[in-house]
Design a protein that fits this description.
Layout (H helix, E strand, L loop, with lengths): L12 E6 L5 E6 L3 E8 L4 E8 H10 L2 H7 L7 H19 L1
Length: 98
Amino acid sequence: MSRRCELTGVGPMVGHNVSHSNIKTKRRFLPALSPATLVSDVLGQSFKLRITNAALRTLDFRGGLDAVIVKLKDEDLSPRALKIKRQVKAKLAEQAAA
């Protein structure tokens, strides 16, 4: 299982541990991932995704999974999230046509 957010694509970053004597050693900053069950109002079902805590706060702020996933770039999304995005877009287009 990769350490990458399924919605935003945030992954591990690299930096330095800096000692008191200013010696630098490599380290990794891992994203704060949480397993979350997200409900899609348009599709009427729930999905389990591993997303960062910041992405979870963004979902709450912007009005849920459907509103956020449509605006996200396809390059950042995981294959599972991309599949959900296609389903949501198809359902919204179907509702707009009716």
